[in-house]
Design goal:
The structure is a single chain. This protein has 335 residues and is an alpha/beta fold. The chain has one domain: Rossmann fold (3-Layer(aba) Sandwich). The chain has a 7-stranded parallel β-sheet with strand order 3-2-1-4-5-6-7, sandwiched between helices. Helix 4 links the parallel strand 1 and strand 2. Helix 4 runs parallel beside helix 5, helix 7 packs parallel to helix 8 and helix 10 crosses helix 11. The radius of gyration is 21 Å and the shape is globular. The termini are far apart. The structure holds NADP nicotinamide-adenine-dinucleotide phosphate. Belongs to the short-chain dehydrogenases/reductases (SDR) family.
Amino acid sequence: MEVCWPCVLVWGSIITFVIIQIRRWLRAEGDLTLLWAEWRGKKPETELRGKVVWVTGASSGIGEELAFQLAKIGSLLALSARRENELERVKKKCIEVSSLSDKDILILPLDLTDRSSHEAATNTVLKHFGKIDVLVNNGGRSQRSLFVDTSIDVYSAIMELNYLGTISLTKFVLDHMLQRKQGKIVTMSSVMGIMGAPLATGYCASKHALQGFFNSLRPEVAEYPDISIINICPGPVQSQIIQNVFTEDISKVNKNVGDQSHKMATDRCVRLTLVSMANDLKEAWISDQPYLAVCYLWQYAPTWAWWLINRVGKTRIKNFKSGVDADVSYYKKSS
Ligand SMILES: NC(=O)c1ccc[n+]([C@@H]2O[C@H](COP(=O)([O-])OP(=O)(O)OC[C@H]3O[C@@H](n4cnc5c(N)ncnc54)[C@H](OP(=O)(O)O)[C@@H]3O)[C@@H](O)[C@H]2O)c1
């Protein structure tokens, strides 16, 4: 049989291209629109320099790193959380790593669950900077407990903080953005706002609520082309989140913190968040594999995704019940 060399060449090129793309996808840390934006899109350094950015939950984890990276870029910052001393620490480091001065960073202690304080807090930021270009709704807490063991007070507290606190602050800031006809509302949702997971029923519910809320708000403000509603959906990221989780009882502290080495580095998650902000992505998935693959599976083949989540979930619940950190022991077992 005669070999058709042009065909071999064409098929060889196609197969090589497909293999390269699969390899790229397997190493991806974000969804396709985000990867494209990082490669070809607008740069945070040009889009966010000089902008007034208000970050909630800025006293640790993702919010703290957001403050550092935004300071380096040259954004003017309002930093909020409950712990003022931690915010002062973050501010000091922001000034060290940037050319910002003391007045470029406003420390504004804020409890997201105290909704009566949100209007005054918004006015304080406006009085200081004269405008708010970006609100980053980042403050929040996760959960580690089974529904059957968990007090309803915990569910109420999670919704009050993650959902109602967030939309309450958004209401006051959005009013100002609508007057200016510009601004970005960036909300730290989660892959748990897209899919479900055991031991986090309340947390998943609160993040689904945020997704539903902002996805419905977006078309309501569509007549303002310069107002963006941006939902960020990270997978597991290194932070204080496990130390701070709600447990089955409102006053019980989580003692089972475990190792964070399998999680995405905080600075990488934040860099991709800034890319999403700069490019006005409506929704961005930021995660290492296998979580990213599960997001796609969830989107396109939910029944298969359920099969997988049930399998992994069984191990997580077993580990949790026997007192070992649910995620880490799963990773150690499977690696
Ligand atoms: N790390 C992850 O794996 C991951 C994945 C997906 C999504 N997220 C989301 O990312 C956001 C940041 O979490 P993180 O991982 O950086 O956790 P973290 O290190 O525990 O930070 C949480 C932040 O929220 C603040 N906060 C908690 N309760 C508050 C309240 N009542 N009022 C105002 N601020 C409050 C905390 O500050 P104070 O205690 O000083 O108030 C802290 O600054 C959360 O919305 C979380 O759901 C995290």
